[in-house]
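job 3f2a | input accepted
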Amino acid sequence: MNKQGIYDYLNEKNISYEITNHKAVYNMEEASKIKLPYTNQDAKNLFVRDDKKKNYYLITIRGNKKIDLKEFSINNNTRRLSFASENDLMKIMKLIPGSVTPFGILNDEDCIVKFYLDKEFLEEPKFLGIHPNDNTATLWIRTVDLVNIIKEHGNEVKFF
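job 3f2a | predicted structure (160 res):
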């Protein structure tokens, strides 16, 4: 599902969202240099795998936070984690580096990606900004709507 496919999907489901178009950004440092309307609600997305390459995870946290994968692994009872390869990203979520987003899970045909969402996005104002499978826009969506989309697709969702 590409960017337009995401918009069409959300419209078909009558899910409200807001779009901010911008130049392509490939990391949070570049994203910090563009003007976004809700800077405290933007998300950082990490696509990781365990050391046996059997389990894949998408970890979504607030854009200004850092995550210690060793600590995350211990707290969430996973094997040792590292970043998944570009090949795995393309094969599983049909995304390129810099475009990683929870919407990529909709391209996960086998529902193997486990989605971990920062529980702070459940607090007011209860929405977040993520790419619509393309790093030239940020889509602002209610947290509950995103969680329901991913669960409906068949992927596991956990909060941390």
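job 3f2a | The chain has five helices and eight strands.
job 3f2a | closed
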